[in-house]
Design goal:
Blueprint: H1 2-12, H2 19-34, E1 44-51, E2 63-68, E3 78-84, E4 88-95, E5 98-104, E6 114-119, E7 124-130, E8 137-144, E9 147-152, E10 157-162, E11 167-172, E12 183-186, E13 189-194, E14 197-200, E15 205-208, E16 211-217, E17 222-229, E18 233-238, E19 243-248, E20 258-263, E21 268-274, E22 282-284, E23 289-293, E24 301-305, E25 310-313, E26 328-330, E27 336-340, E28 350-354, E29 360-365, E30 370-378, H3 393-401, H4 422-429
Helix pairs in contact: 1-2, 2-4, 3-4
Amino acid sequence: MNTFFSLWRRFSRISNLKLHVLLCISAMLFTFLVNPVFSQTEVDNLAVVVNALDYDDWDITSSLSIIDLDEPNLKRAIDDEVVVIGDVPSGMLIHGHLAYITRFKPFSDILNDGILIVNLEQREAIGHIPIELGAYPQQMALVSSNKMYVTCDNAHQVHVVNLDSRRVTKIITDPSFNKTTGITILNGKAYVTNPAWEWDAAAGRSIYHQSSVTVIDTQTDTVLKSIPTPINTTGIVNDGDSTVIAKTTGDYNMISGSLILIDTTTDEIITTVNTRTTPGSIAINAQKQLFIQGGWQHPGLLIYDVPNQKWIRDRNDTLTEFAGGSGMVFGPDGNLYIAKPDWTQSGLSTLLVMAPDETLLKTYDLGYGTDKVAVVQLMPRNEDTNDDGFVDIKDLIIVSRDFGQRGPGITGDVNRDGVVNILDLILVSRHF
């Protein structure tokens, strides 16, 4: 009942709402609270895949594909290249029914740097969050329902984005920032990787400086600490408890990569583990086991037990069937989803689904440069009447404004039955 009284107080401040609308809302909330039927919602289980290859000479444009994981026919399950991304996509974050995709255009004076917003239910691009030209946005992390951090490696910055206004509201800078790339958030702090590399054109190779992980207080947006790490620290994840795991790739030659385990209570390094290979993408499961792509020297998946600090599968015992993956993520079903890209014109990219017992469940045939993947349980979101990515009091106000109207295409007609009534209010409230 606390939900009812809280919403009543909020609505009582809105002077232009009519009494009958308030009574309708009261009836709606009472019905919602006592009738479990209204809380039943169908869920679509989807894999969202970024096809990152973008090459004009081949007439190939980066795009988004969506896979229905509940569809038994693997071909019918794929809605391939359903949304055009354009430019170079570098990261993806799913929040509710919206996908946020960072993208940039290297060596261009066209203002394309930013974040593309895609409505996954409507399967169309609905907006763009601009990032300063040449910043090269990379990875994103959700601080709260309305606040996002974005790493920008070319600008050596972290941008703070307000998701409601779809604008950058603050830019975090620090001397420790150097090619800011990976980011993860745990226990009120953001951990940002700094690979600290630069291209030496004369020598024709990359030069690596001191890498680090920068710690940011997410409430104040201030830097708390910089943790020195081995060279080329790129990827970073957390175990959902008290440990952050950063991955270094080394110099792709003489220096191998490593795993750095960081205690988030002290922000000190617990241990550094030499992988004795050049590790690729990483993903962590609910058992706090870290899965690592082994690179070209030792292709396949390595597995490291974070709590026990020991290898389950090292470089000499990889799961070779799952080699060559780029983006990886665990779904709520416990399966590991691996995007395996083809960077040629052949378009032979795939999405592999690995079961918890390390067997191959499914292979989805996709398009060009399948690079990143996210798994989402999508609920119907017609209740998001203003299409801002959230179902909140603003949507209730819109339905209340349109209450009693009849006809096609009314914004407040959530269930599309041609009339705005109590049923539409109920539909919004159950997703509040």
